[in-house]
From TrEMBL:
Species of the source: Streptomyces coelicoflavus
Gene3D superfamilies, per database record: Tetratricopeptide repeat domain
Superkingdom as given in the UniProt entry: Bacteria
The name this protein goes by in its record: Tetratricopeptide repeat protein
InterPro entries assigned to the protein according to its UniProt record, in alphabetical order: TPR-like_helical_dom_sf
Length: 186
């Protein structure tokens, strides 16, 4: 129901020009192959977030998320490290872990992804996106079993969690294939 989704996002943005809505609409456009429309939304998001920051709001998390996926991952890491220092939390841990992954720092990325998803380490929010991020980082590190488990969990939590990332999770699971059939260790 893509047409309805586009209309709903456009109506929501007209009523409340939220950076979150702009990011989600941009990603919907991108998933539909409408790169120019997506870039317009991402630019509007940057503009709105900077305006909100000038008015005293803290938009570092939103700008970090945007830059990690649709801009400059190194800038995302810079923004999110500062945000982690100001107010560490699960959302910041996830975003910083993902930004570190996008910047090629997968070992450190996994530390933050684990904080965001592991109940014993402070996480525990059942977020398909957070678990997806962890699974992709694990896959990049060659940890196929945990990657497979977390990517499946992301799709179990919500098979439609993102118009860009849900299909990516499915592709990654296909690449990973089924676990090897082995007997118990000697």
């Amino acid at each position: 129901r893509t047409t309805e989704a586009l209309s709903a996002y456009q109506a929501a943005l007209a009523k409340r020009p939220s950076p979150e809505y702009a990011l989600e609409l941009g990603e919907l456009y991108e998933s539909l192959g409408l790169g120019q429309a997506a870039r317009v939304e991402y630019d509007l998001l940057r503009e709105r977030a900077r305006g909100a920051e000038e008015a005293g709001a803290d938009e570092a998390l939103m700008l970090g998320r945007l830059e990690a996926d649709h801009g400059d991952p190194a800038e995302a890491v810079r923004l999110l490290r500062a945000e982690w220092g100001r107010q560490p939390g699960i959302a910041v841990a996830d975003a910083l872990g993902w930004a570190l992954h996008r910047a090629g720092e997968d070992e450190e990325a996994l530390e933050f992804a684990t904080i965001a998803t592991d109940g014993d380490k402070g996480g525990g929010v059942r977020s398909a996106l957070y678990v997806f991020h962890r699974g992709v980082i694990e896959q990049e590190l060659g940890r196929s079993g945990p990657a497979r488990r977390h990517l499946r969990e992301a799709l179990t939590i919500n098979p439609y969690f993102s118009p860009l990332r849900a299909p990516e999770a499915k592709r990654a699971l296909t690449e990973l294939g089924e676990p090897p059939v082995e007997g118990p260790p000697d």
